[in-house]
Design brief:
11 helices, three-stranded antiparallel β-sheet, binds pyridoxal-5'-phosphate, alpha/beta, 16 strands, 358 residues
């Protein structure tokens, strides 16, 4: 069975040697040495000022809302993984959707201003499939209306923007290190920020607000990464250049074979940013064609994913007008299998099936 992604597993002996050391030390969680080491290495690798490691990306979003004291309405995109919206709702914020740009699939920055009300406290855009949002325009709006910005950068690991990290934009960015993402720690996530103060407060928050053995100084939750997660991250990070290199090859091959087909639409990339080849989305002319292609692939044991479907404005716990563009893209978009070890023959098979069925 060929799926949209295959979790990268590092050398087992290497991982075991970390496990041996964790067992020998007896220190398995609570900001242990491997969490500290991974935090340091990621800070260097990503060129960011502060990075806090967490249990998962969803909790990173929730902690970001808490640490920024958000309430009222959050302007966000309807075209994302459900966690973007659900974590806002979970934190008691009202998600207010702004439709996406039909070319980039990111929130349409030009429509944000008209969605702002006296209740708006923040903007939560997503760099969908690692494609950088209109960060300058969003920054300008946020400044004008005194709003906070949290970027859901779950797909944007290692993406650069005009010579620096894309993660340096906004009040903070969150990352997901779930097994399905390009860099993973089994489950995991991070909060990235330029503000030392915000980092320090979030660090207390993810450990119940505990400052010392007899001192609880803030409202908190438990969202700490553990040593086994960090060990996986250290192993995967060692191999990341090779992983990205292989993904780039798979990506380029899809683009070469499918890129000139006029009935397919591809994501328009932000020319100021680099790419990480995390996803290969294609948009068909209709949902009917998408379903036909999916069925033809399925017969061969190939299971791409309808990322992202359905559009989040249709969730049962949100209200508001229909997001027509997001809905239309969501109905017609498919993410093709892309991962470092994807066999070229299988990729050729996928390409042939798509060509035959569109
Ligand atoms: C994966 C993902 C998340 C959630 O991250 P987890 O680590 O799985 O909790 C949030 N937002 C987006 C856009 C994602 O793709």
């Amino acid at each position: 069975m060929i799926k949209v992604t295959k979790t990268y597993l590092p050398n087992l002996e290497k991982f075991k040697s970390y496990v041996d050391k964790i067992f020998a030390s007896g220190w398995i969680t609570n900001n242990g040495q491997y969490v500290e080491e991974l935090e340091y290495r990621l800070k260097e690798y990503l060129h960011v000022n502060h990075i806090l490691l967490l249990t998962n990306g969803t909790l990173a979003l929730q902690v970001a809302c808490k640490v920024l004291n958000l309430s009222g309405e959050a302007i966000t995109t309807p075209f994302s993984f459900v966690a973007t919206t659900s974590s806002l709702a979970w934190e008691g914020l009202k998600p207010v959707f702004v439709d996406i740009d039909p070319a980039t699939f990111n929130i349409d920055a030009e429509q944000i201003e008209q969605a702002i009300t006296p209740e708006t406290s923040c903007i939560v855009p997503v760099h969908v499939f690692g494609n950088a949002c209109a960060v300058e325009a969003i920054e300008q709006i946020a400044r004008k209306y005194d709003l906070k910005v949290i970027y859901d950068a779950a797909h944007a690991f290692s993406v650069g923007y005009q010579g620096e990290s894309l993660l340096n934009y906004g009040d903070c960015s969150i990352l997901s290190f779930h097994a399905t993402k390009i860099f993973h720690t089994i489950e995991g996530g991070a909060l990235v920020t330029n503000s030392k103060e915000l980092y320090e407060r979030a660090k207390l928050m993810i450990n119940f607000g505990i400052a010392g053995p007899e001192s609880i100084v803030d409202l908190g939750i438990n969202a700490k990464m553990n040593e086994f997660q960090a060990a996986m991250g250290l192993c995967v990070l060692d191999d990341l250049e090779e992983i990205l290199h292989r993904r780039r090859q798979v990506y380029a091959h899809y683009l070469k074979a499918l890129g000139n087909l006029e009935t397919l639409q591809f994501q328009q990339h932000n020319s100021k940013s680099t790419e990480n080849y995390a996803y290969f989305p294609i948009v068909f002319a209709s949902e009917e064609i998408l379903l036909k292609v999916m069925q033809a692939l399925e017969v061969q044991g190939i299971l791409p994913r309808r990322y992202f479907f359905p559009s989040l404005d249709t969730l049962p716990y949100v209200a508001g007008p229909e997001m027509a563009i997001s809905k239309s893209i969501a109905q017609r978009i498919l993410c093709l299998p892309i991962y470092d070890s994807l066999d070229l023959k299988i990729q050729e098979q996928i390409i042939a099936i798509i060509r035959e069925n569109i």
